[in-house]
């Protein structure tokens, strides 16, 4: 009785492994200076060592693979940044913790962020839009957390989103610095210090702004 369940589980595990291998193959090929819209389905399946028909058991087309890569790139990042903001002491330590978490995550997932940085203005419209949607979600979540600080409780949603947008844009700049830092011989401590200063400058302007409230 137990054998069919084991067989089903093993089959499911193999399927998940193949799906992951297809995603990793796409990232590996793009790491060789290919854009996503320059990849072919056959290149990816050849990299994994499976026949092209196997691809369609996991993805309906190349676009769906790209969209899953976007979702995979942002999913854990949102949770990590949320935990960093909630567990750090408000103020400068929250900024430092968030930046350290962010830089470490980008470094550990370099190929994902190279994909995002390139495809943010790339040739596949659906992927560009999905990246914008994920960035807006990050901005909205940060705005919600900022609204919990006493000095910002009277701020309008529009103004909270404006500040969080400035901070997210600074973080996008950090991604570009992390991706190119090794070529310049720049270490993470220097990157974190620069990013922290940029975010502090944004925060310094907060008390001077007179929000009209919602």
UniProtKB/TrEMBL annotation:
<feature type="domain" description="HTH tetR-type">
    <location>
        <begin position="16"/>
        <end position="77"/>
    </location>
</feature>
<keyword id="KW-0805">Transcription regulation</keyword>
<dbReference type="Pfam" id="PF00440">
    <property type="entry name" value="TetR_N"/>
</dbReference>
<feature type="DNA-binding region" description="H-T-H motif">
    <location>
        <begin position="40"/>
        <end position="59"/>
    </location>
</feature>
<dbReference type="InterPro" id="IPR001647">
    <property type="entry name" value="HTH_TetR"/>
</dbReference>
<dbReference type="InterPro" id="IPR009057">
    <property type="entry name" value="Homeodomain-like_sf"/>
</dbReference>
<protein>
    <submittedName>
        <fullName>TetR family transcriptional regulator</fullName>
    </submittedName>
</protein>
<dbReference type="InterPro" id="IPR050692">
    <property type="entry name" value="HTH_transcr_repressor_FabR"/>
</dbReference>
<dbReference type="InterPro" id="IPR054129">
    <property type="entry name" value="DesT_TetR_C"/>
</dbReference>
<keyword id="KW-0804">Transcription</keyword>
<keyword id="KW-0238">DNA-binding</keyword>
<dbReference type="GO" id="GO:0003677">
    <property type="term" value="F:DNA binding"/>
</dbReference>
<dbReference type="Pfam" id="PF21943">
    <property type="entry name" value="TetR_C_46"/>
</dbReference>
